[in-house]
Amino acid sequence: MDGFREANNFGLNQKVENAQFHVKGANNLSWGMKDRLSRIFNPKTGRAVMLAFDHGFIMGPTSGLERIDLSIVPLVKYADCLMGTRGMIQTCIPANVNKPVCLRSDAGSTILTDLNRNVLIDIEDAIRMNASAMAVMFSAGDGDREAITAANLVKAVDMGNRYGIPVMGVTAVGKQMARDARYFALASRVCAENGANIVKTYYCEGFEKVAAACPVPIVIAGGKKLPEKEALELCYNAVNDGAAGVDMGRNVFQSECPAAMIQAVYSVIHEGLTPDQAYEKFQDLSK
Ligand code: R5P
Known about the structure:
By secondary structure, the chain is of the alpha/beta class. β2 (81-85), α4 and β3 (101-104) form a beta-alpha-beta unit. The radius of gyration is 20 Å and the shape is globular. 39% of the residues lie in helices and 16% in strands. α9 packs parallel to α11 (258-271), α9 runs antiparallel to α12 (275-286) and α11 (258-271) packs antiparallel against α12 (275-286). The protein has an eight-stranded parallel β-barrel with strand order 1-2-3-6-7-8-9-10, surrounded by six helices. The chain is built from twelve helices and ten strands.
């Protein structure tokens, strides 16, 4: 007790703050889950710019991802979160970049086959990778593939809940399904109903209904490469219609100037720039 000072700072006139958590649908999650979600979704804006470079797990070395050390590493500092496979992250991304990882956690089929026998990676490897979230595909309306991916999603959520790792449901578009609000609303909602903490889907007409009916944050994929201004409009419309950010790949790494593009996207998502303002920023940074 030598040097012990009696406690006398109890803040008797100050109420304990029980602030709402900034991520949609996450109020009742564990501290560890919230901590991981906070690494992905900026507590000031509630939004996220996720940089997706997992395309090779289905497509092999696609344009812009031939050398991730050359194309993606220089962009890492501009992203809120990295979305890739364990193989590419552990071989190409320096472990000291200190960015949260949304780990692509399923695998099994490529563009060479129609067979979908997707499997999940071991949760222990996601823990070893210090994953802040696990991304798992869900494909609605596609027969066996729906059943397999739903089982994967449920297993990932069960494991994620056990260890405090959020799951991002990745809505794939089944062969029989149109890319419309009805499909994306269904697929997103099924992901959330099964416990996904984040949903990745696509922007579409009527997206505000997709977002409204989904009780967890939606990030949109960019899809195939668009002219930069159109891609920025896509981001702007998505967040205005209720998305919590983007999980964008090709429209960043296939841009004429990827570093300028990701910064322009960031400005739309976090700083409220209009597409015109963001495009001007893209052009300035491209010089
Ligand atoms: C698709 O399942 C992949 O996970 C991609 O990460 C995703 O589509 C986002 O990439 P992009 O913006 O190129 O569509």
